[in-house]
Design goal:
Length: 251
């Protein structure tokens, strides 16, 4: 069982979908909300993210969706933001669907924006059962964008064929150059088999290192501790909730 106390640091990810008529507003808020986030108490790290079409990386933006990735000094600070901030009140009022997950980083390597967003966290000594959230992100060299885009479709197709993939989404801080994928998996062994055992993905990983595609990259394994709302009509991590408390994720 995982537990986060009020004073413990925590990570959150939110995905919102808006009506088609609000597409232009979605772009506006991706810029405007930066002001509010910069002055939010207890918010250590944040990224407002655009979302690609479909369930994997896509260079074509989905203007009806946006995402927010945050790292908090404490669970209490996150809960206050979700309950009291004008930003979250507006998201809930204007969106058709909102899904959010609170999670703990278990293992990670790399940097984001030149630093380690998870410096306050202690890596777990060993894997534990239950669903997993995986984040991979990279800053791509301009000279490698075309190569990156050409390699994506085969890996994306193979990812969506995985039977224990619960859902996934491609997000980014800016088109083409700053890209990330967040995926939800039922078990860790299946995720690792895809990441390190499948020919399409492992070959691309080798190429990224050999051909130096990335200026910066980051890989993170998270254990979700609670999830609320819906994503494509369901909560893919509903099993993470324990009587409404931030508590347990078990298989």
């Amino acid at each position: 069982m995982l537990h986060v106390a009020e004073h413990d640091p925590v990570v959150a990810f939110m995905l919102a979908r808006y009506p088609q008529r609000a597409s232009i507003q979605t772009l506006f808020y991706l810029g405007f909300d930066r002001l509010a986030l910069t002055s939010t108490p207890g918010l250590r790290f944040w990224r407002l993210l655009g979302v690609g079409q479909g369930r994997v990386f896509d260079p074509h933006p989905d203007l009806q969706r946006s995402a927010l990735f945050t790292v908090w000094d404490s669970l209490a600070a996150l809960q206050h933001f979700e309950a009291q901030s004008r930003l979250m009140q507006r998201v809930r009022r204007q969106s058709e669907e909102v899904w959010s997950v609170q999670m703990l980083p278990v293992r990670w390597h790399g940097t984001w924006g030149g630093g380690d967003p998870f410096a306050r966290f202690t890596p777990a000594p060993a894997p534990t059962p239950g669903p997993w959230v995986i984040l991979t992100r990279a800053t791509i060299y301009a000279t490698k964008v075309r190569t990156f885009l050409a390699a994506v479709p085969l890996v994306a197709q193979h990812l969506l064929q995985q039977p224990t993939l619960l859902n996934s989404v491609g997000v980014g801080e800016a088109p083409f150059f700053y890209q990330a994928t967040l995926s939800l998996w039922r078990t860790l062994p299946d995720m690792m088999a895809f990441a390190y055992g499948s020919a399409p993905h492992s070959e691309v990983v080798r190429r990224t290192r050999r051909e130096n595609w990335y200026k910066e990259d980051l890989f993170v394994r998270f254990r979700p501790v609670a999830a609320q709302g819906t994503w494509d009509g369901v909560n893919p991590l509903a099993e993470c909730n324990n009587a409404g408390d931030l508590g347990a994720c078990t298989e």
